[in-house]
Amino acid sequence: MQVPAPFEYERAESVDHAIGLLERLGSEARLVAGGHSLIPMMRLRLANPEYIIDINDLVAELGYIRVEGDHLHIGAMARHQELLESDILAQHFPMFRDAEKVIADPVVRNRGTIGGSLCQADPSEDLSAVCSTLDAVCVIKGSGGERIVSMHDFHQGPYETAVGDAEILTEVRIPIRANGGSAYNKVERRAGDWAVVSAGAAVWMDGDTITDGRVGLAAVGPNTTTIDQARDLLQGAAPSDELFAQVGAVCAENCDPDTDMRGSAEYKKHLANELTQRSLRTAVARATGQEA
Amino acid sequence: MEVTINVNGVDQTKEIEGRLLLVHFIRDSLGLTGTHWGCDTSNCGTCVVWMDEEPVKSCTVLAAMAGGRRVRTVEDLEQDGVLDPVQQGFIQEHGLQCGYCTPGMLMTSRALLDKNPDPTEEEIREAISGQICRCTGYSMIVRSIQWAANAENAVTVGASS
Ligand SMILES: Cc1cc2nc3c(=O)[nH]c(=O)nc-3n(C[C@H](O)[C@H](O)[C@H](O)COP(=O)(O)OP(=O)(O)OC[C@H]3O[C@@H](n4cnc5c(N)ncnc54)[C@H](O)[C@@H]3O)c2cc1C
Ligand code: FES
Ligand code: FES
To answer: Which residues pair with A180 in a beta bridge?
Structure first.
């Protein structure tokens, strides 16, 4: 029987209270949101915090999904199930629903949060790939105020983020641009498992021309990542199967998966290529209102 | 630390360690051994209980996190000596063999039918996809849940006509 090492439990009543507790308790304190990454790690003693600060009472403050101006704002405590069911999210960024359908299982999705997902910074985390593809920014709060960090700078290595010891991720913000479409595809070994590889794509169109396009991959390197070369190829191009094949090939070339129990590096590169093409095809179809 | 959790309608106050998992609170502190515990990886789902009306894996929730919240376990399905239709369905359609996975399966299926009284086979399979059964091959579990849905829908139709 595996149980966590001893720690002291505290419950935060507000974002500011959580920050105050983090400041007082120091670097041995950890926030717990859904707990579905942290508690398994504590059971395995891969994480041994001295203090746990429970932020589940912050759902009222940080559980929102809403449009404000030309951005979609998602509070850090929005849970997977809410992201899956949110119509406003599916309307603006359908890749969220594609991804949420295949993240973990329905019971885990009742607990896990977007904040916990991004802060876990697991190289296979699907929502990190989604947020990178959509060029999201993260709002991080400390006693000195808020700062905004791009997804690119948010992840600083496997399991490492830009969130400081006495800071909390409060919100993810995604720019809404006209004539966009997005999609996400994942290959997993069995229902509820982490990705062998996932690929997301988002495009923005002007008539028949892709004005901007992004691809984000999970489980192909130390962090979820966007592929700059894909963006270069997509910008200004007209969608075609040849273009998608070219972009798929470039994504496979520019990622660095390891051989592990989920598959060989070669197989994962094959998936990166194929899944990129599928996501691009659907993203364009959605942007142009031609989804089958 | 002291924690009060409402379990099956009764406030339970206990002195616990912060690291106590909810599944152990239920089984060891309260002696409600209907909830099973089967893995250390949050994968098997036999530990599923409801917290504030939603199915959760109780091996992946700290008891302290459940403080002040409502928990419902498999013991609460039977009311006044009458089995819940999902329990009846598992009997009628042989939804269990060893019974290890059953408490989690029952709690998830009850939640599913409360939300979606007439689920398709696909929706049933999706709802239990976070739970592992090593005996039945799942088809009998699916049929058990369909049995319960049909039984409940028959009663509702009967009542309104
Ligand atoms: C069986 C199983 C299968 C899974 N499969 C998948 C999958 O296929 N794809 C996938 O992407 N994920 C998967 N997950 C992970 C799941 O999505 C988790 O819910 C998620 O990784 C973490 O979210 P959480 O809210 O539970 O975070 P927690 O476990 O509570 O926290 C994770 C980390 O983030 C920190 N943290 C949490 N919130 C904040 C915040 N607001 N500010 C700063 N730091 C914070 C914590 O201190 C901790 O270090 C799976 C999990 C399980 C148990
Ligand atoms: S004991 Fe909780 S998921 Fe296996
Ligand atoms: S009945 Fe034996 S594990 Fe399901």
So the answer is: A204
- Which residues are A68's β-sheet partners? A71
- C-alpha pair distances (Å), A189 with each of A7, A81, A263, A274: 35, 22, 10, 16
State both tokens at A51.
């203090």
DSSP A148: E
Q: Which residues of A257-278 are buried (b: 16+ CB within 10 A; e: fewer)?
A: beeeebbeeeebbebbbbbbbb
Give residue B117 CA to ligand 1 midpoint distance, Å. 31
Could you list the residue range(s) of the whole structural domain that residue A239 is in?
A: 180-287
**Could you tell me which CATH number the domain at B85-160 has?**
1.10.150.120
Burial of B7 (0-12, 13-18, 19+ CB in 10 A): buried
**Helices B139-160 and B102-115: crossing angle, nearest 10°?**
40
Residue A51 identity: Y
pLDDT tens across B26-51, in order?
A: 999 999 999 999 998 899 999 999 99
How many Cβ atoms sit within 10 Å of the Cβ of residue B88? 15
Tell if the CB–CB gap between B18 and A191 is shorter than 8 Å. no
Query: Quick check: A290 contacting B, CB < 8 Å?
Result: no
- CB B48 to CB A107 under 8 A? yes
Segment A72-106, tens digit of pLDDT = 999 999 999 999 999 999 999 999 999 999 999 99
Q: What single string gives the DSSP state of each residue in A254-281?
A: T--PPPBTTB-HHHHHHHHHHHHHHHHH
Average pLDDT over residues A20-28: 96
Mean pLDDT of B134-140: 95
Q: How many structural domains compose chain A?
A: 3
> Does residue A234 contact residue A180 with C-beta atoms inside 8 Å?
no
Mutate which: B17, B19, B37, B125, vs A, most A CBs within 10 A:
B19
B46 in contact with ligand 3, CB cutoff 6 A: no
Same domain? A271 vs A184: yes
CATH of domain B2-76: 3.10.20.30
Of B42, B67, B127, the CB nearest to A36: B42
